[in-house]
Every structure is written in C-alpha cells, then in structure tokens.
Amino acid sequence: MMREGHEEEEMMMMVARKPAWLEGLTAETFFASCGIHESRRKSEKNVFCLLCCLSVCPHCLTSHRSHPLLQVRRYVYHDVIRQSDLEKLIDCSYIQPYTINGAKVIFINQRPQSRAKVSSNVCFTCDRILQEPFHFCSLSCKVDYLLYQGDDLSSFLYRIDESDFTFSNLRMDGHDQLGEISTMEEDTDDIMVMSHQWEQGNNSKEKTKKKKASNYSPGLVLSLGSRRKGAPHRSPFS
C-alpha cells in the first residue's frame, strides 16, 4: 500500500510539471466520435487545440479557428504526429521517428508489446527495441523519462508560434489515416527509420537552437521500465 501511494504521488508530481498542452496531448483520446457532432459525417476528433488543450473534430473547428491547432493522424490504431510539427513544440531528439507514406511521424504514446525481445538498444522507458541512435519510442516515453530523472522540461520546450499551427495549415481531406502494415512489432523490417538523414538534420538544427545537453548513454543509464520493476541499479563501472 505504501508503495502504491508513493507511485501515485510520484505520478502527480510528474503531471504537475508538464505544461497543460503537453499533458492534454498525451492523455487525450483521439479519433473517437465527437459528442456534439456524432450524427454528422467525419466527426472523429483528430485535431488538438493547443490553447484549449482538448481534441476536436472538423465540425468544431469554427469555434477554434483563431487558436493554434495541431493535427493528429492515425497509424495502425495508434496516434502519431508529423515530426515537422512536433519539433516546433518540443525537442524531439532521440525519439525514434518512422517514415510512413513518405512522412516522418512520431508516436504520441508508447504501444503495447506482444512478446519479449532481446536487444542492446531499447527505449529507456518501456524497453521497446529501437534502432541506433534513438533512446525513446514515443513522445510520452521521453517526457516521462526526463521527469523521472528530475530534468526541467522547460529546457526542452519551445515557445508556440501560432503562425505554425493555423487553421489554414490543417489537411482535412482524409489523409489523417496513414497506410497500415500487418504488424507494428517488426519495426526494422516493415518501417523505414530515418537514421543518417535524421542525424544530418539534427546537426544543422543544433546550430540554431539552444538545447540542453543530454548525457544519454546506453552504458550508463538504466531504463525507466526496469527501474519501475524494482531492478537493482547497475554501476557503469562494474
């Protein structure tokens, strides 16, 4: 009971340190039918209002037309955001992007894993297998890890430029449902992961953006998933 109480307190502290839009984005349910417009066609909630911190459907947009709006897409029953959109809000370094139908996307939350695998490079939070040089499989995994480590999220957040998230930038033409594959488990075979191009792009961005230095080293860090399971701390010198 004491352990459960400690975990609840820890989660409340983590939530309190997230900005409202980030907490709303990672907790919101997308692609559910809008309660106000459920009788109308295309009433799935696939847009996130960064000002109101909630998901809305295309028919709700008239009430949010002047607000900064972020489009969410669906891929194999999981929510994704274009990397080009997300990296305007938060430092996306070390989050593994996927190229789907020619677009680089990032998963909002971690996904269930059907079977255990062994790899030298896994997500620091949920232990999902990743390709080098990435350390997180989703936005929420990186955010949770940073908060667990006691990092200040403000060092990773960017000021929202509303001109980047205008109503006119949205694509409400049915392209929010990305092409599917048979399974998400075979990441290395079924999805192209940007590695060399990603590194080149990040190197150029680091010259123009001030980012907090991160000491992400697979040999020195124990994943958050393992820590929550009560695994003993491994010394980097052992």
TrEMBL record:
Where are the stretches annotated Disordered?
198-238
Q: This chain belongs to which protein, by name?
A: PLATZ transcription factor family protein
In terms of superkingdom, the source organism counts as Eukaryota
InterPro entries to which the protein is assigned, alphabetical: PLATZ (IPR006734)
Which species is the source of this protein?
A: Eruca vesicaria subsp. sativa (Garden rocket)
PANTHER family noted in UniProt = PLATZ TRANSCRIPTION FACTOR FAMILY PROTEIN, PLATZ TRANSCRIPTION FACTOR FAMILY PROTEIN-RELATED
